[in-house]
From TrEMBL:
Zn(2+) binds at C3, C6, C18, C22. Belongs to the DNA gyrase inhibitor YacG family. PANTHER family: DNA GYRASE INHIBITOR YACG. The keyword Transport does not apply. Pfam families: YacG (PF03884). This is DNA gyrase inhibitor YacG. The gene is yacG.
Length: 60
């Protein structure tokens, strides 16, 4: 099996991914959706804007 993100050989520790980085990329894709990779869907844009605003409101 190869990494679904970059198609390199999977690491047994992170399969089906090749590294933690690729596992994180995949996770972010599922969790972030339109936030990480903006789409042209207006609903996604609105969702992304809201996510950014909420991020700013968090105390640092
Ligand atoms: Zn990979």
């Amino acid at each position: 099996m190869s990494c679904p993100i970059c198609a390199r050989v999977s690491d047994p520790d992170y399969r089906p991914f090749c590294s933690k980085r690729c596992a994180d990329v995949d996770l972010a894709k599922w969790l972030g959706g339109g936030y990480a990779i903006p789409s042209n869907d207006p609903d996604d844009m609105e969702e992304a804007a809201r996510a950014v605003v909420e991020e700013d409101r968090k105390p640092h």
